Amino acid sequence: MNWALRKAIFSLAAWFLAVSISILIIVLSPGDPALIMLTGFLQQGIPYDQAVRMVQAYIGFSPAEPWWSKWLRYLLGVVTGNLGVSITYRIPVAQLIANAIPWSIFFVSYSLSLTVILGVLIGIALAYYRSNTIFVRSVTTVLTVFNSIPNWILAAVFFVYIGARWQLLPYMGPYSNDVTPGLNLQFIASVLYHYTLPTMVMVLTSIPGWAFGISAMASAILKEDFITYAKARGLPSSRILWTYITRNSILPIYANIAITFTWLLVGTVWLESQFLLPGLGSLLATTSGARDYPVMIGVYVILITAIVLGALFTDLTYGFIDPRARVGET
Amino acid sequence: MSLIEAKGIVVTFAIRKGLKKLPFNAVDNVDLEIEQGMIVGLLGESGSGKTTLGKVTLDLVKPTKGIVKFMGKDIRKMYKEDYRKYRLNAQYVPQDPYASLHPFKTTKDILMDIIKYHKLVHSDKEALELVSDTMIKVGLNPPEKYLNKYPFQLSGGERQRVSIARALLLKPMYIVADEPVTMLDASLKGAIVSTLKNAIQAMRTSLLFITHEITLLQYFGSQTKVLVMYLGRVVEQAPLGELLQNPLHPYTQALISAIPVADPKARASRKLLLRGSPPSPLSKPPGCPLSDRCPFVTEKCRKEEVVLKAISSKHLVACHLY
Amino acid sequence: MSEKSRNLAKQLKLVFKIFSRSPTLLFSLVVLLVYIIAALVVVLGFVPPLPPYKGGWEYMYQPPSLRDFPWYILGTEYTGRPLLLTIIYGIPKTLAVAFLSALITVGVGTAIGLIAGYVGGLVDELLSLAINVALTIPTYLLALILVVILPPELKTNVLVLAGVLSITAWASLARAVRAQTIALKRREFIDVAKTIGYGSWKIMFDEVLRFMAPFIAMNLVLSCVGAIYGYTGLAFLGLMPMTPDNWGVQIYMAIRGGGALYSDKAILALWSPIITIVLLQYALINIAKAMEDIFNPALRTYLQGEEM
Ligand SMILES: Nc1ncnc2c1ncn2[C@@H]1O[C@H](COP(=O)(O)OP(=O)(O)OP(=O)(O)O)[C@@H](O)[C@H]1O
Ligand SMILES: [Mg+2]
Q: Which spans are transmembrane here (chain A) (predicted)?
């Protein structure tokens, strides 16, 4: 328990440092958002004093303050849950984010579970049938090709062809217009249907990393002595593989889950905006285009928070599954 | 004044067992003195702390307690120039020739780098000459045959020769050779030990020769000072000849009885076997460290610590029997 | 001198041998060479300048033609400029951003990992904290924010872009290098290096680093892949200056400009930059995988075989 608490405190410290350093970079960079906003308001003919007050109301700090006071004030806002007001939507950033979070959680966890399951299966198949060169070569080639396609390019291609041109799958919006949002079957079915294409993109572009990693690990395990021994005892090799892989590779799999989670979360910026889905990613993408700084920075902070929580969650669950993991750390 | 003098050396390591850390002394209150040009043998079973003690004299392991002096000066309290002198004059031939050579460097890279780093000579040509000379000295002859080879292209014996050449290159005053031939064929052992001996005697270099085979020490002559270690302690110290003829400590007697001898009568008279399994530093008994395996054990041995006592001017033993 | 050039020739021959063992690798090497040559051709000014922007529907997405051969064989793009030319103009800048960013990522990551692992103690604690914090900040996320707020003149600066695209990318490499350094520190050749009198810098940046050379080289190439992803991807979001020579902008325009969505009119304008990016990434990923072989002396000598 003591160990879990220590982990949590460490994560909190890392989160705080990550957020404050990012904010520091932002307020110190040559493009201080407060100043840019102020210039924008002044250009609209708003008097200086009022413009300064407006900037302060939107983003939480004033363009006239020294950098450290901007930094402190924004951090204080983050800690108290006050992230400013959106310039484009004119509503509190926190509210915009709260509306977006459930969609992103759904999208990312749906893609993540599919990626992990399919990635592990393909990886094990690669290791198991490694004597079959044709199989290994062709699967490896396909995986390498998908590895080289940036997810936003695959999204664009699927959007244009499978969506717009051939109309095979829905490619815009999170659900169709004729369902009522809520806990009803039609709505859920419609959401799943609309997320098919985006999820395909996420999964196809993240599988290669998993499949290669698992297959390398499984091949290494298959070469070890205890496998030869188990074979000599007459255990069927598929069962050996399954038992030993699951036993010996849980740690790397767990470590990878946090990394893939982060990767997918960042991927939503491109995918949600491409397929016009609600969520943190599309919120960040659209507000970046509109230079809506309060929302941009707010979403950024929330994404960092999600990443830290994701890492903490995998660490803790792994520690509870395998107590040995707790000893490894000092 | 001795070249190397280690006093009261204690090295404490801790090993993890489950969630706990168990501390133990890998080297336990050991003194070691090596004079200029002298060869000292360090004898003991695996795990007795030989390598650790050797590394302490090279400042590769910091002792928990005790001091190491080089030419009378404490190496921890030296001025920078003095320390540098010590550093370059104390060289190491590690135990495992496979792990001690950089796998991505050729023999030439390994040896030339040293000369270039310390700017020992002015031109590449001179450097190559120096390298070739040293290689010939350790039996890598002709040098051209080995210069461009990577460690994995060398045999075990050749690697060990490269490792020795590397230690000799700086013409040091002191070398620690840690079981330099353990991993080699019996036929090669003698050749390499002789090479080492000839090379260091030509330079009047001191040598700490670490081994678990007492027979190897015979190459250095019967006057060689030998320290016998057991579980981190020195249990006996004497010149080799004296040690072979008149071993006092039961542990030394056991070591010597393990040497194969031709004469059956001699064999019978020297028969002595220790009970139990080889020692682990974690299960060191109280009192004398050998008390759980010694055939002559008394009540006193199990309770009272033993210290090294002088039996004659050159013969020391740590045993309650004397 | 002549020995040096002979050595170089031998090395190149060796690299070629490693590559020719697998057709995929050979293909990848050829692809990369083509890109590099194209970049040099542009930089040296052997390519005609981009013609000025031409508004009007009739100039946009024209079909391929043999006019001004070969520049119009892919037709024109959304500004009426020859597509092939704009794509080729994108090569030097993309490669420069990718390579610089990879250098920064790998340089910083390796140095921090080596120092943290080798020096240990308080230095390690502090650097590990920095690594852990940087690990929680995804590079492209912070890069996105910075790209938006930076003034336009900085956004087109190759060095600034490279810095932005490697801002926290070094962290995962630093973590791996640190772990490997800690493991290597216990090896006997490091003990020997100390007794030989090598200083900490020499041990870290020669002995230890040389041991990790294949890994570092692989990461250098993979960092290029990452930087190209970020550079084109952020442009695709419309956040970079809308210069016609950015492949991400070209894809963005082919779709947002409407051309590709409803007809095949912009098919070349959509697929040409896509294939350009994917081909480059594919080649780089394959080359990254081969770095292990190139740097492994055992394999090298095996291939050199008969020459020894
Ligand atoms: N860095 C370390 N951390 C913890 N324990 C150590 C460390 N180095 C050595 N030991 C332990 O200290 C004891 C003595 O080790 P040392 O290597 O000095 O023995 P040795 O006499 O050289 O044995 P061998 O003949 O096997 O080389 C051993 O039990 C070993 O496991
Ligand atoms: Mg040893």
A: 12-31, 103-129, 141-162, 210-230, 251-271, 297-321
Q: How many Å apart are CA C228 and CA A193, to the nearest integer?
A: 32
Ligand 1, CB within 6 Å, residue ranges:
B 13, 15, 26, 44, 46-52, 95, 212, 281
Residue B4 has pLDDT above 90, yes or no: yes
CA distance linking residue B281 with residue B275, whole number of Å: 17
Q: Do A156 and C142 touch (CB under 8 A)?
A: no
Three-state secondary-structure class, residue B150? coil
How much distance in Å is there from the Cα of B135 to the middle of ligand 2? Answer: 26
Asked whether residue B185 carries a pLDDT value surpassing 90, the answer given is no
Query: In C97-236, where do the E strands start and end?
Result: none
Q: What is the pTM of this model?
A: 0.89
Residue at C86 is within a domain: yes
Q: How far apart are CA B125 and CA C97, in angstroms?
A: 43
Q: What is the pLDDT of residues A270-325, one digit of tens each?
A: 999 999 999 999 999 999 988 888 899 999 999 999 999 999 998 888 777 766 66
pLDDT in tens, A175-188: 998 888 888 999 99
Residue B103 pLDDT: 87
Average pLDDT of the segment spanning C118-141: 94
Pick the closest to residue A301 from A103, A76, A30 (CA basis): A76
Closest listed ligand to the CA of B62? 1
DSSP states of C26-82: HHHHHHHHHHHHHHHHHHTT-SPPPPPP--STTTTTPPP--TTTTTTTT-B-TTSSB
Residue C14 within a domain: no
For residue B21, the chain A residues in CB contact (below 8 A) are none
Q: Evaluate whether residue C92 is within a structural domain.
A: yes
Is CATH 3.40.50.620 correct for B4-99+172-262? no
pLDDT > 60? residue B106: yes
Structural domain boundaries in chain B: 4-99+172-262
Q: How many domains does chain C have?
A: 1
**Is pLDDT above 70 for C147?**
yes
Note whether residue A147 is domain-resident. Answer: yes
The ligand 1 atom nearest the CA atom of B15: 4
Assess whether pLDDT exceeds 80 at residue A241.
no
* Nearest residue in A to B17, CA atom: A327
Domain-embedded: residue A160: yes
Structural domain harbouring C213: 80-307
A55 in a structural domain: no
Looking at the structure of chain A, the number of domains it has is: 1
Residue A303 CA to residue C138 CA, distance in Å, equals 9
Q: What's the gap in Å between B30 CA and the centre of ligand 1?
A: 15
Q: Which residue CA neighbors atom 25 of ligand 1 most closely?
A: B46
Q: Which of C144, C236, C261 sits opposite A152 (nearest CB)?
A: C236
Give me the residues of A, 134-153, that contact C with CB < 8 A.
141, 144-145, 147-150, 152-153
Domain assignment present for A297: yes
- Which CATH number is A238's domain given? 1.10.3720.10
Residue C296 has pLDDT above 50, yes or no: yes
The torsion angle over the Cα atoms of residues B288, B293, B298 and B301, rounded to 10 degrees, is 0
Any chain A CB within 8 A of the CB of C270? yes
Could you tell me the residue range of the domain that residue A262 belongs to?
93-326
CB contact under 8 A, C236 and A311: no
Mean pLDDT of chain A: 87
Higher pLDDT, A274 or A62: A274
